[in-house]
Amino acid sequence: MSRNGRLEASLDRGVVRRVDGLGRVVIPKELRDLFNIKEDTPVTLAVVEDGLYLKVVQDTCIFCSSKENLFIEFKEKKVCRDCYNQLWGSEK
Ligand SMILES: [Zn+2]
After folding, report:
1. How far is the CA of 67 from the CAs of 4, 54, 70, 75, in angstroms?
2. If you measure from the C-alpha of residue 87 to the centroid of ligand 1, how many angstroms do you get, rounded to a whole number?
3. Which of 13, 23, 46, 86 is 20–30 Å from 63 (CA)?
C-alpha cells in the first residue's frame, strides 16, 4: 500500500485523540513508524485550509543532502560546513 493510501486508511478509522493539559497529543505508533518519527525527531506545524499540518524537519544539508557537519541554519534550511565553505570561501 502506498504511503498516501496508508495515511488515508489510518485517518479513516476516525480515532479521536485528546490534547492534554500541556497541549500535547500522541501521534499514533503506526504513523510514527510510517514517517520514522522517534523521540527528539524535529517536526514543524503549519496552519492549512482545514487544519494543522505536521511535517518532519529533515536534518540534511539543503544543497548536498549530507547529514554530517551541519553548520548553519537559515529559514529552517540547514547548510553543511563543506557547502558553506564552497559558497563563502574557506576560513583557512
Ligand atoms: Zn552540503
Report:
1. 26, 21, 7, 18
2. 10
3. 46
Question: For residue 67, how far is its CA from the centre of ligand 1 (angstroms)?
Answer: 8
For the full predicted model, state whether its pTM sits above 0.90.
no
Sorted by where each starts, the structural domains of the chain and their CATH numbers stand as 3-56 (2.10.260.10), 58-92 (no CATH)
Instruction: Share the mean pLDDT of the chain.
Output: 84
Residues whose CB is under 5 A from ligand 1 (ion)?
A: 61, 63-64, 66, 80, 83
Return the residue matching grid coordinates 511535517: 55
